Amino acid sequence: MAIHLYNTLTRQKELFKPIEEGKVRMYVCGPTVYNYIHIGNARPPIVFDVVRRYFEYRGYEVNYVSNFTDVDDKIIKAANELGETAPEIANKFIAAYHEDVKALGVMEATCHPRVTENIQEIIDFVSALIEKGYAYEAEGDVYFKTREFEGYGKLSHQSVDELRSGARIEVGEKKQNPLDFALWKAAKPGEPYWESPWGPGRPGWHIECSAMAQKYLGDTIDIHAGGRDLAFPHHENEVAQSEALTGKTFANYWLHNGYININNEKMSKSLGNFVLVHDMIKNQDPEVIRFFMLSVHYRNPINFSDELLESAKTGLERIKATFENLHHRLANSADLSEDIDSWKETLANYKKRFITEMDDDFNTANAISILFELTKEANLYLQEPNSSKEILELFIQTFEEIASVLGLDLMEEKELLDGEIEQLIEERNEARKSRNFARADEIRDLLKEKNIILEDTPQGVRWKRK
Ligand SMILES: Nc1ncnc2c1ncn2[C@@H]1O[C@H](COP(=O)(O)OP(=O)(O)OP(=O)(O)O)[C@@H](O)[C@H]1O
Ligand SMILES: [Zn+2]
């Protein structure tokens, strides 16, 4: 087998054939940085991080580019509301994004380009589209001429007629055709702007990804990815811009993740039904959130609930407990080498099955089932009175190999979460009130061991990390 992936463009699973032998050029649309990310926004960075890790595991070198949209209406609005500048807002939420996705086990991208650092490339791209007859200027705006691009609609599988019936020309837009979209927007008073051949203005949303993908990865890339809502219009417009300019295929494979829903509705900022990662990880181990996301295939929807999260937590704890037990037993095991060949085969078989599942459009849900089976197998082995060092090591290695592709650290020494600390302090207060000083001291010692310092103040107990 080799890696197969489901391509939105062809609506089929296809064999992965890289442009360049042994290399993957991958572009994942990143966030608009005007707020903290919610659990839904965290799905693309997590699932495509696993796609990247899996390619690396299979020996590919991955050039992974993920942008930041750091100039946009929403950012300007947030800046005005908070009395800060747009770059201040963008910088603050870029830092928050890095912090949140790092906690979720996401590897740094090879490159994280920002729109504001690529304005010249965008202007050049737009100028070239005008020169080729694919775009036109109208009173300081520039629009893409969709009817000039023959394949318009091919990615989202819609005909131009269907699309036209749903499109409108909004007030203030100067486009000739409802399906045309802005490549460049003339500056309105009080907005950030850059000088351009069409006067002061800023880029439209779609052009940034075409320009940055080309700059950092070349005219044709292997994989382009993002959430399902990006397929239309964002990715459709990217295809139009890039292919109109170069005459080449823009991306060979298009991957789209399904939604995280709440009560079967897409989690989104506009609906207000979201949970921020930033808040959630105060009380929940971020690795549990990652494990929870990966326990469903990336293209399927997930109906988010506390019960599902709780069951992911229990599952992950079960795997970790077994992994720890293997280590513990290793310290007290002899060098018995009976049966080693048959164990080698058994464990190699787990790896093989893991690869088969991941080769099949990155089926992390089935990969996790295999990890549970491996846990069961290890528990059975641990019940035997004697254990061989070599076999324990084989088990550990198999666990580690699978877990590292999924981005899980089974050995990690956990820090206490804010919520857990507060709960312990509360319990200590109660213990003191009921004169159970032994328990109160025990909690104080436990917190001390975890580097939490308590300070008694007239307002109550305060805590900080050492
Ligand atoms: N509920 C969700 N489930 C899965 N992916 C999502 C969800 N909501 C947004 N995404 C994805 O998150 C990424 C970041 O998107 P972006 O910062 O533009 O947020 P957004 O789509 O504006 O969010 P919202 O819909 O909450 O306004 C995109 O790839 C988008 O498809
Ligand atoms: Zn994009």
UniProtKB/TrEMBL annotation:
CDD domains: CysRS_core
Coiled coil segments of this chain: 414-441
GO process terms (BP): cysteinyl-tRNA aminoacylation
Cell location: Cytoplasm
Catalytic activity: tRNA(Cys) + L-cysteine + ATP = L-cysteinyl-tRNA(Cys) + AMP + diphosphate
Motif ('KMSKS' region): 266-270
Binding sites annotated in the UniProt record for ATP: 269
Protein name: Cysteine--tRNA ligase
